[in-house]
Write a structure and sequence with these properties.
This protein is an alpha+beta fold and 214 residues long. It is built from 5 helices and 8 strands. Helices cover 26% and strands 40% of the residues. A 6-stranded antiparallel beta barrel has the order 1-2-3-6-5-4. Helix 4 packs across helix 5.
């Protein structure tokens, strides 16, 4: 394989990631947008869990982000809020590919989050209000009682809870990985550099790309 042809071709890593995800959606049996999200707690102890990636944003000029939604008071929400950093792996067994991302994180808790919350199934919206995510709960029955209570309170159009919204991962590093024969995999690492602007001119984003040994 020559330098970044085929599935690795392109100058915008977010568009490459979108293309890989679109291909996986046709071949992966379940949740092609699942990511293994890694964070650290206040003691530096790592933590990981599966979440669903809901958007790959591409703004042009090498800028973009990866967006998912959760309860801000969950374990991952508290850890991200404390550090402002996260990483994830998106792996597709059907394609034998993966994408690894590391970056800084900001909240998405405005109109975009409102629109996404409104698009969810009603029971999922009620469930968001009812669940104190990652906190102890007495029993399944107690959870369902709270679901019923919140359903009666909010009816058919519950608003987005103030403790629930999006996180936007702004990557500093992205790696595209594809399985190769005899474990001679193809790996391309993108590392972001932001050039400072001058005067009224904003800075620009530049991605340096290099092939990594398998």
């Amino acid at each position: 394989m020559s330098a970044r042809d085929g599935i690795f071709a392109g100058e915008d890593p977010f568009l490459i990631a979108r293309a890989w995800l679109a291909e996986a959606e046709a071949s992966e049996p379940n949740d092609a947008n699942a990511i293994a999200l890694a964070t650290v707690d206040a003691d530096g102890m790592p933590d990981a869990r599966m979440v669903l990636l809901k958007d790959i944003e591409s703004f042009g000029d090498g800028q973009g982000a990866f967006v998912f939604y959760t309860n801000y008071d969950s374990a991952k929400g508290r850890q991200i809020s404390a550090t402002g950093k996260a990483a994830f792996v998106m792996h597709w067994k059907s394609l034998r590919r993966q994408i690894r991302v590391r970056g800084t994180v900001t909240r998405e808790d405005g109109p975009i989050a409102d629109d996404y919350f409104a698009s969810r199934a009603l029971q999922s919206r009620i469930g968001a209000w009812a669940s104190a995510q990652s906190r102890p709960v007495a029993s399944r029955a107690a959870l369902m009682v709270e679901v019923a209570r919140q359903g009666a309170k909010w009816g058919v159009n519950p608003p987005r809870p103030p403790f629930w919204g999006g996180f936007r991962i702004d990557p500093v590093q992205i790696e595209f990985w594809s399985d190769g024969a005899f474990r001679l995999h193809d790996r391309f690492q993108w590392v972001k550099h932001v050039r400072s602007g001058s005067g009224d001119q904003p800075g620009s984003t530049v991605w340096n790309v290099e092939r990594l040994s398998p």
